[in-house]
Amino acid sequence: MDSTPSKQAEVTAPARIPSDHPGVPDLFAVLAYGEISAFYRLSEDARMARTLEGKVALAAMASAEMSHFETLEAALTERGFDVYEAMDPFVRPLDDYHASTTPSTWLEALVKAYVGDGIAADFYREIGHSLPPEVEQVVEEVLAQTGHSEFVVQQVRAAIEASSRDRDRLMLWGRRLLGEAITQAQFVLARREGLTELVLAAYGDLNGVVALFDRMQEKHAERMAVLGLE
Questions:
Q1: pLDDT digits (tens, 9 = 90+) for 26-50
Q2: 40 domain residue, yes or no
Q3: Contact at 8 Å (CB) between 166 and 160?
Q4: 52 and 126 in contact (C-beta within 8 Å)?
Q5: Does the N-terminal or the C-terminal CB of the chain have fewer CB atoms within 10 Å?
Q6: Where do runs of H (alpha helix) occur along 163-227?
Q7: Is residue 11 part of a domain?
C-alpha cells in the first residue's frame, strides 16, 4: 500500500516540470562546463598512455566531449543565454573536483574516465528523465557513450589480473572518485537555487534526493564490477 503513492508520484513528476523551468539552463550550463573540462582533462591524460592505441583512444574520447559541448552551447544560445556566463557559477566546484581527483597513473586516468564520468552522467541522466522530451533528448545526447569504454575495460581488467597491488589501489581510487563526486554535486545544488528546485521538482522532497544519491552509489558499484574492481 505504501509503495503505490510513491510510484504514482514518480510517474507524474515529469509532467509537472515545464521546459522553461529556470533550472533547465543551469542543467545545460553545468553539463557544458563538465564537457569542456573533460575535453581538456582527457587530452592531458592521453600523455600518460603507455601505447599509441591508448593515446588515440583518449584523444577520440576528448573529441566526443567537445562535440557534446557544442550541442549544449547551441541549446543555451537558443534559450537566449551566453554559454560562458551560464557556465561561470560551475567553474569552481568542477575545477575543485578535478583538482582533488587528478590521476597520478595511466590506470587511474582510465578508471576516472570510465567511473568518474559515469557517476556524473548517472546524476544528470536521472534528472533528465523528469524533464520534457526536448530537454531530455539534449541531456541524453551529451551523456551518450563515446564508444571507447570497451578499451578502458580491457586495459583495466588486464592490469588488475596481472597485479593485485594495482587492483587494491584502483578500488580505493574508485571509492575516492565516488565520494568527491557526490560532495561536489551537493555543493553545486547548494549554490544554484534553480537547479535545486529542478531536482526537488523531479523527486518531490529531500527523501527523493537521498534516494537519487543511493542509486548513484548502486550504479557506481555496478560500473566498478565491470572493471573487475568489486
A1: 999 999 999 999 899 988 998 899 8
A2: yes
A3: yes
A4: no
A5: N
A6: 164-191, 193-203, 206-226
A7: no
